[in-house]
Amino acid sequence: MSTSSLTGDDIFVSLEPPPLEEDPSHARSFRNLSQIIPQIALERGSFINITEDSLRKELEARPSPHVESPPDETPTKLKQSATNLAQFEEDFNNARADLNRLISAAQNEAAISLDFVSLLISSVRPAAGTTSMSPHLKSHVPVGSLGADRIKSLPYVEDMSVCLGWKTQAVSAASERLAKAAERLAEEAVLEKNYWEQVEKIAVSGEVLSKMRMPDYRGMGVRYGFADAGSTYKEKGIATLRRNVEGKLVVKTEGEKRTKVLSVAIMRPLHGDYVITGQYALKINIETRDGKSEIKQARDLLFEDELFFEIARETRILGSQGVTLDFGNKVMIPLPALRIVIETIDLEDQESSMELDSGPDRVIAEAINVALHLLLSKLHRKNLKAGRSIPLPLGTRTNTPDIGKSEILEPLVSSLAVPPIKDSLMTLIMDLTSALKEK
Predict the structure, then answer these.
(1) What sections of the sequence does the record tag as coiled-coil (predicted)?
(2) How does DSSP assign 116-158, residue by residue?
(3) Any idea what the Cα angle at residue 197 is, between residues 192 and 203, rounded to 5°?
(4) In angstroms, how far apart are the furthest CA atoms of the chain?
(5) Which CA distances in Å does 127 have to 121, 133, 136, 190?
(6) In the chain, where the domains are located
(7) Residues in Cβ contact with 331 at an 8 Å cutoff, skipping those fewer than 6 apart
(8) CA angle 43, 48, 52 (to 5 degrees)
């Protein structure tokens, strides 16, 4: 070993084994070499600084322990001391075996490192490399088969063409998306223009437009019903003005689309049975050209529906006069010389109802149909006037009108039944007068 002087800052570690304690449990209190060597390296640094001379000086500098004459030992103490000595010898042998194993591992690692360095040197200087190479490596690995070189990193050069390419591609994609968006917005603007032009036509025609807020729609709507005119019908007549994919205005009414119109037929007895001699129904165009015509058609059909509803309701009031409601869709009014049938028919059946378009009974049917529409309008006006009138003070006595009064059928039935009764009465009076004159 090489010698080196020790400074005052060096740390000394005792190499003497720890003293054996009287307690046998302390016999294995010291650690093995795998634990002691890292502690020595941490306290004293590398083993290259530890020399034989430094260790000898450290031992000489330590004071010799004072050895007292051993007292008289009993057989029990002698037996315990012998046991501790045997345990110490066993621990010492184990520590020496660990030290030999660690030294062998260190020698093996050093030899492997030497072979690795020798193999690297052999690629540049074969003679110098093979001198320190182990025979095992020479026999299994060719000389100069392992080389090493220094990697030099190339200087970073920014390629502007790549940056410009990515930027050009991004700008081109953005321009294409903007062009498509502009084209789509232009098409949408044309569709919106067509839609609002049709809405403007409806507004100019005098229809009441309003903003609709419904669960499935928020937009423009129109009120085509008769609630503002005094109608108390359950259907208020509200439609939404929607736009389809083609930009056209679509009028969507609430509920199912109505297709029924009121028909009045005159039936007279013939060969013991009653046959239709005249019929009339309001002619409503089936085909609609625009939103304005759709609203007009919806308003007319709503009026027809409400009219038949009121007529069917009043049949219960005039039941004593023979007015009946058959199957819920046909009202029969019997008169002395004829019968009046009021029912609803589909729009497609209007042409068949116009086959009997001549004759006096057809004129009577038309007059009755028009009279029914006028009487419903009169009922609306009456309801509107009653709703606008100022209520009387509480406690004021008024003549309450009959709630069950018929406003549509009763005036019609009365006016149609009076002339035949008048003729019969005049005939009876003339017969009585003639009989009295003869006497």
Answers:
(1) 78-109
(2) HHHHHHHTT-HHHHHHSS-HHHHHHS-TT-----PPPPPPP--
(3) 125
(4) 191
(5) 9, 10, 17, 92
(6) 162-256, 259-386+406-439
(7) 311, 312, 315, 323, 324, 325, 341, 342, 343
(8) 95
Distance CA 321, CA 339 (A): 13
Contact 224, 295 (CB under 8 A): yes
The tens-digit pLDDT sequence of the chain (439 residues) is 444 444 444 544 444 545 544 444 444 445 666 777 788 778 777 777 778 888 888 888 877 655 555 555 566 656 677 778 888 888 888 888 888 998 999 999 999 999 999 998 988 888 888 888 888 888 888 888 888 888 888 887 778 888 899 999 999 999 999 999 999 999 999 999 999 998 988 888 888 888 888 888 888 888 888 888 888 888 888 888 888 888 888 888 877 778 889 999 988 888 878 888 888 888 887 776 778 888 888 888 899 999 999 999 888 888 888 888 888 788 998 887 888 999 988 877 666 555 556 678 888 888 889 889 999 998 888 888 888 877 777 766 665 555 567 788 888 888 777 666 556 666 776 777 777 666 5
Structure tokens at 373: 């529409």
CA distances from 145 to 63, 126, 137, 209 (A): 60, 11, 11, 95
Distance separating alpha carbons of residues 40 and 38, to the nearest angstrom: 5
Residue 122 to residue 341: CA distance in whole angstroms: 125
Tokens of 36: 């002691």
Strand order in 238-243's β-sheet?
208-214, 217-223, 238-243, 249-253
pTM above 0.85, yes or no: no
